[in-house]
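Illustration 12: Sialate O-acetylesterase.
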Amino acid sequence: MIKSFLMIGQSNMAGRGFLQDVPFIINERVQMLRNGRWQMMIEPVNYDRPVSGVSLAASFADAWCFKYPQDTIGLIPCAEGGSSLNDWSVDGELFQHAISEARFAMKHSTLTGILWHQGESDSSDGKYKMYYDKLLVIVKALRDILNVPDIPFIIGGLGDFLGKTGFGQYCVEYDRINDCLQKFAFEQEHCYFVSAQGLTANPDGIHVNALSQRFFGLRYFEAFDRRTHVLTALSHEVELLDKLIARTHTPNELMFKKQMDFALGKLSFEKLINEN
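Figure caption equivalent — predicted structure in token form:
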């Protein structure tokens, strides 16, 4: 049975890392829910915008498969760029869509965890003051409606590159949101905080870049796997990422990559056929 994960939040969960900046992660044991079907994962996983790119989900799932080679992981992408915490209110469209997708996925998978990253849109005008209470309502409703009262809820922190340049300069209260996120994870059952310490941004100053998204995903996996908070960078995250990249691909994965190259105009039809 597929172990599935609901991905919710805003653009840094959806992913805006530049696709050309890191090697593709292709793993036939990592599936994504798209058009009502489980399909082999290809980035961008969470296609909420034409600028969608590398997210933390791929390295999270790949690290899982590296440690647990008998498992198949399913990703349920429901993040929405630019969304505020109010946009995720229980009676709102984003929340209802996530519930619908999760319920559909649960017909053919076991919902195993919820991955959350959100807060940039709430990092100004004192919105942090109500953040904890609003998030509590959302998490409780997710668990109650989906009947998963003990499901782990993994909460990513905001990058310390915020509040300085580009679009990120407007996130002047990101540290207050981080305090709320960490406090929430420390106080609520089955919730775990993942630090964004040392992660770097795209030139826009607000979106986690591709390589840092890879590291972020490894930290999310560490938090889930060990059921613990990850408060600093992992000492082994560079080594682990290198191992994931160096993994020998299966014939199905190699064919998938060739088909992608053909579709993108990087490989001729003759070479596609002759190399089979």
